[in-house]
Amino acid sequence: MLSSKLACRVAGIDRDRFNEAICTGQYLCAPRVVRGGTRRFNREDTIALCVYGHLIRNQTGREVAGKIANCVRSRLQTEPELKRISVHISDAHIKETEPLVTQIFNIGAFALRYELAIKGELCWP
């Protein structure tokens, strides 16, 4: 399990912006705060946060990124052996069936970042 501070570091996102996303309802799948005031991120939570971080760094809106992260977390909970996931992002105002963007996430890469963080072996620039 990772602290909120470390999980945000692993995901490459600012912790204050992440907390704002939680407070404004843009990120709905954050782990609950445990007594003592800290969130503890398990593997699925951290991978979802990494996906969220990747999406917002690539100009996806925070609300959309939060919904996608929630879906990824749900899939990982039901299919823990999942290796890759494909996410299709489309504009609701466009009446086309083709997605505007397709993101394919290598779950193994995010899981490795999580495992390295658990072991204290993840290096940051």
Q: What is the compact description of this entry?
A:
50% of the residues lie in helices and 16% in strands.
Task: Based on the model shown, name its key terms.
single chain; alpha+beta; three-stranded antiparallel sheet; about 50% helix; about 15% strand; globular
Structural notes for this entry:
By secondary structure, the chain is of the alpha+beta class. The chain contains 5 helices and 5 strands, in the order βααββααββα. The model has no long low-confidence stretch (mean pLDDT 83).
Low-pLDDT parts are none
Strand content: 15-25%
Shape: globular
Helical coverage, percent range: 40-55%
- What does the radius of gyration come to? 15 Å
How many helices does DSSP assign?
5
Report mean pLDDT, rounded to a whole number.
Answer: 83
Give the terminus-to-terminus CA distance. 22 Å
Structural class: alpha+beta
Physical arrangement of strands within the biggest beta sheet: 1-3-2
Number-wise, the strands total: 5
SSE inventory with pairings:
Blueprint: E1 2-3, H1 4-11, H2 15-23, E2 33-34, E3 38-41, H3 43-57, H4 62-78, E4 84-89, E5 101-106, H5 107-119
Antiparallel strand pairs: 1-3, 2-3, 4-5
Helix pairs in contact: 1-3, 3-4, 3-5
